[in-house]
Design a protein that fits this description.
- The complex is a heterodimer of chains A (about 80) and B (about 325).
- Chain A is mainly alpha-helical.
- Chain A contains 4 helices and no strands.
- Chain A starts with a helix and ends in a 5-residue tail after the last helix.
- Chain A has one domain.
- With about 325 residues, chain B is mainly α.
- Chain B is about 80% helix and about 0% strand.
- Chain B has 15 helices and no strands.
- In chain B, helix 10 (about 190-210) runs antiparallel to helix 11 and helix 12 packs antiparallel against helix 13.
- The longest helix of chain B is centred in the N-terminal third of the chain and has 20 residues, at about 90-105.
- The N and C termini of chain B lie far apart (about 70 Å).
- The interface of A and B includes residues 67 and 68 of A.
């Protein structure tokens, strides 16, 4: 009994944190930060941010057009 | 006396040739005179007017002049509103007119209406009895691109493959299909096939239109993007520079393809450590896109916020 209380608390907290991150605005911010990093030459960082944005958008409804733009940003990111 | 319809057709043929020779602005002028000839001779709703409007819509679309492209497409749609399925000429014109408007709607990011227009054009075309694989393939690629930029990749690929089957893989007209397949594979990180498709598109364009045509340059930019993603930065830089210098010579200064090439090349310069050049190229791309697409287009909105942050730092 006691154990379950202890373990559900952090799990709930984690779910709440993730839910907060699941928004159009957050996805857009990750995309824009990605572009910002890319324009400054930090391509690995940019790639990480684009993927983060895509991951969020994958779980949101009506994000397909925005997701395609982020995917294109990722597609033209140079390697090396 | 000269038959005005035949004269208009001759002028539209000339306009097309000018465009293929990279003289796009002259092509528009000639096509406008063709429209004037049929307007004068045939009254306001003659089918030949729709034909001239379609040609003008296509030319303006290729020049990134979307307001005019839309106006001409809508006029052609109105003229062909009352068609009979047995009137092949009119049905063909209507298919083209719907395709023109669909293309403009897609560029403007109105994917819903673009999809509807492409679908009605394809339905009409597929019910027809005349052979016209190139036109069908163009429509399929257009609808496929709507799917691509709605993240509907499976549907996009199915349409592109269908289009390729229609036109065959080695014809000059299949360059447009290879271009779309390359773009799809680039976005899905399938670089090996993406590169070979981009190379095919480039060599087909080069053979058909020569090395200095805007369409050839666009394939160079596409190949450059694929190579940059694979780490071949020096070759990519060369191709981007060549593409951009061709665009600067043969296109009006505010052109969508030029903007895309500048934006993509900017990313390459950034990766190479030339942050100043990257900023200039990104800004140039943004200025062009703002002029031709307006401030509320998603591609502009995204970039405006990015650059605002970049420059206020």
């Amino acid at each position: 009994m006691d154990n379950s209380v202890v373990t559900t608390q952090p799990v709930n907290q984690q779910v709440a944190d993730e839910a907060l991150l699941l928004s159009h605005d957050v996805a857009a911010v990750f995309n824009d930060l990605g572009v910002l990093m890319a324009v400054r030459g930090h391509t690995e960082e940019a790639e990480r941010l684009y993927r983060r944005s895509l991951e969020i958008r994958r779980r949101l409804p009506d994000e397909s057009a925005q997701a395609a733009l982020t995917r294109r940003n990722l597609a033209i990111l140079p390697t090396g | 006396m000269v038959d005005p319809i035949a004269e208009a057709r001759r002028r539209l043929g000339l306009a097309r040739r000018f465009y293929d020779e990279g003289r796009a602005e002259e092509a528009v002028v000639v096509a406008e005179t063709a429209l004037a000839v049929v307007e004068h001779a045939g009254g306001p709703n003659h089918p030949a007017i729709a034909g001239a409007c379609i040609e003008l819509s296509l030319l303006h679309e290729r020049l990134s002049q979307y307001t005019k492209a839309e106006r001409y497409a809508r006029r052609a749609i109105v003229i062909t509103e009352e068609y009979s399925r047995r009137d092949e000429t009119l049905v063909r014109l209507r298919v083209k007119a719907l395709g023109c408007l669909a293309m403009v709607e897609r560029v403007r990011n109105r994917f819903g209406s673009s999809e509807v227009l492409y679908r009605s054009a394809l339905d009409l075309a597929e019910n027809g009895t005349w052979p016209h694989p190139e036109e069908l393939a163009e429509l399929m690629c257009g609808l496929g691109a709507v799917y691509l930029f709605s993240s509907r990749f499976v549907e996009a690929e199915a349409l592109y493959r269908q289009a390729l089957e229609l036109v065959g893989s080695e014809k000059a007209t299949s360059a447009v299909v290879w271009h779309h397949l390359a773009e799809l594979d680039l976005m899905l990180s399938r670089f090996d096939t993406g590169e070979s498709y981009a190379r095919r598109a480039l060599s087909l364009r080069e053979n058909a239109l020569g090395p200095n045509h805007a369409s050839t340059a666009n394939e160079r930019a596409m190949l450059a993007a694929v190579l940059a993603r694979q780490g071949n930065l020096d070759m990519a830089e060369k191709l981007f520079r060549k593409a951009i210098s061709t665009f600067e010579r043969v296109l009006p200064p505010n052109h969508y393809d030029l903007a895309v090439a500048c934006a993509d090349f900017g990313m390459l310069m950034a990766a190479k450590g030339n942050i100043a050049a990257a900023g200039r190229l990104t800004q140039r791309a943004l200025d062009i896109k703002t002029k031709i697409l307006g401030r509320n287009h998603p591609e502009v909105r995204q970039a405006v916020e990015d650059l605002a942050r970049l420059t206020t730092r």
